[in-house]
Amino acid sequence: MSFTTTIEKYTDFEFEKFFDRVRPDDVTAAMEKEKPGVLDFLTMLSPRAAEFLEPMARRAQQLTVQHFGRTIHLFIPLYISNYCSNQCVYCGFNCTHAITRRKLDLKEIEAEARAIAATGMQHLLLLTGESVEMTPIDYLEAAVSLLKSYFASVGVEMFPMQVDAYQRLRAAGADSLTLYQEVYDRQIYRRLHLAGRKTDYRFRLDAPERGAWAGFRAINIGPLIGLGEPRREVFFAGLHARYLDDHFLDTEVGLSLPRLNPAEGDFRPEYRADDRTFVQLLLALRLFMPRAALTVSTRERADFRNHLIRLGITRLSAGSCTGVGGYARPVGEKTPQFVVSDTRSVQQVAEAIAAQGYQPVYKDWDLIA
Asked: Along the 369 residues of the chain, how does pLDDT read in single tens digits?
């Protein structure tokens, strides 16, 4: 079982010809279906559907309130290492970049935990660069176990692993896995990932399934918008999410659409999605996957994130630092993985959510032993 079988079905699919055939009536019919099919989803991603953003937005808000209420879940990222063995041309942690590399020890991780917990945050996402040698499973287990004593939920976003390694992290207290394919287009993937374990497209693609088999409560996936043609990339991300949702009934499936921000190396994306296109991609995902969590990170501007609250998103990061550490004390050499656009504090983001008539949620579940 692998999602790669689904991708192969569309190897010779003529996306542009399909988009050219989409009519206004097709868009209306697709967005009004209780469970849109695959081609309905593609129809809502088409350039023609950009003319229907207002009715799509109304439908998206209705579905989101129906399944999630007027709530926005808050989380915060913690990077504990920026060592990486991969040569990804778009990433600030690229192993060829002459940046200051750091790895927090357990004492430093605990100091970060205390500082973050003081903000009221209870959902933490633990991140590293992708280096098995510098951040082995024993180190990651110890970090998760320590952090679990401070937070209701600890998610992990790091290099792809086998099922047994994911099971070890889950036993240590991690409950969710975030792993982005970055780009689903195989040819582009090959051009952008020049060296390291990340060159293995299939191993990365199947990692969310392995995480689900390991028993993680939630799996979050998505493309990095800017690496491939956005409409196609979101199409495959949506199919990937539905595939996971269909095969792992006890797993909460979520999606994120991070847009490329400046990083070390000054990478210039070949593809761009302006704000209007980004909104369309988000709305189409909500209509296709009405029960999926949709995350928007601090890569996006504060005012833009405020406007997205009513358009189907359910999760926001807040108070984020994308360098190693940075919460317990200022760090002199703090090379980020990417530049943060929304620099508001946790409290400021929570106040903005409340101003939209929604409730910021710091804690939404507990593990019962």
From this structure: 789 999 999 989 999 999 999 999 999 999 999 999 999 999 999 999 999 999 999 999 999 999 999 999 999 999 999 999 999 999 989 999 888 899 999 999 999 999 999 999 999 999 999 999 999 999 999 999 999 999 999 999 999 999 999 999 999 999 999 999 999 999 999 999 999 999 999 999 999 999 999 999 999 999 999 999 999 999 999 999 999 999 999 999 999 999 987 765 678 888 989 999 999 999 999 999 999 999 999 999 999 999 999 999 999 999 998 889 989 976 544 566 778 899 999 999 999 999 999 999 997 655 544
Residues 271, 230 contacting (CB under 8 angstroms): yes
Whether residue 219 is contained in a domain is answered as yes
**Domain extent at residue 175:** 4-361
How many angstroms separate the Cα of 303 from the Cα of each of 71, 179, 278, 306? 18, 27, 14, 5
Domain count for the chain: 1
Domain CATH number, residue 172: 3.20.20.70
Domain for residue 183, yes or no? yes
User: Both ends of the chain: CA-CA distance in Å?
Assistant: 31
Position 368 in a domain = no
Domain presence at residue 274: yes
Residue of 363, 358, 366 whose CA lies nearest to 64: 358
